[in-house]
Amino acid sequence: MAATTATTTAVAVLRDWRGWPATLSALWRRSLRFRTLTVTLLLTSMAILVTCVTMALVIQNDLFESRKLEALEDAQRAIAQAQNTLDVAEVGDDPAALSALWDSTADFLARNSAADQLTAIRIDVSPDGVPLTGFTAGLSANDITPALRNRVVEFDDRQSWQSAALQIDSRTVPGIIVGQQLQVPEAGPFEVYFAYDLADADETLGFVQRTLWIAGIGLVAIVAVISYVVLRTVSTPIVEAAETSARLASGDLGVRLEVHGEDELATLGRSFNAMADSIEAQIKELGELSLVQQRFVSDVSHELRTPLTTIRLAADMLNDQREDFDATTARTTELLHTQVQRFETLLSDLLEISRYDAGSVQLELEATSLAHVAEDVIEQMRPLAEKHGVELRLVAPGGYSPVDMDPRRVRRVLRNLIGNAIEHGEGRPVVVTVDSNQHAVAAGVRDSGLGMDPEDAERVFDRFWRADPSRQRTIGGTGLGLSIALGDATLHGGTLAVWSELGVGTNFVLTLPRHGGVLDGPSPIPVEPEEPLAGLGEATQPIQLADLPADLFDEGSIR
Question: Over 90: is that where the pLDDT of 434 sits?
Answer without folding.
Answer: yes
